[in-house]
Amino acid sequence: MEYDSFSEGIELGGLRTKNEIKILIGYLLSRLDTPLTREQLDEVICGEELANYFEMSQALSELADNGNVIIKENELIITDKGKKNSETLEHDIPFTVREQAFNAAVRLQTRLRRERENKIQIDRVEKGCNVTLSVVDADDEIMSVKLFVADYDQALAVKERFLEDPVRVYSNIVALLLA
Fold first, then answer.
1. Exposure on the CB side of residue 104, measured as CA atoms within 13 A
2. How far apart are CA 46 and CA 56, in angstroms?
């Protein structure tokens, strides 16, 4: 097979032809429950080192030009034509690549949903930071915890850990308080 893509920034096993990259984009957009933005697609494919940024950009443009993908208000929406093509061709790229990209996209979308649904506020104070973590269910705040940490790096670590699983944090606090 002759490669027609740049391989800079691509992990071993990544995609090296424009057609493979197009198939992966179609596969992701047809399998996910919610659309990706252009930036999210970049983060998934390039962040996982599955394809070169410039090649991915060109592949996305070609998919849009050919009517397989519609770019609407920064969201990438796969058309019926794109879904059909994706289903037909998805086995032309390795299962491990499809799985890696899909799992990365799901992790990203989960993270973004958690950021939207929960509140984290970091306030710098004289000797460190106050971190306020709030778990929100629909429009109701069901828990708010304020922690003092020594510095901004710790505050960011608390934020990251909280966003990994806010429900677990809530459940553990309730379990500790009711035990």
1. 20
2. 8
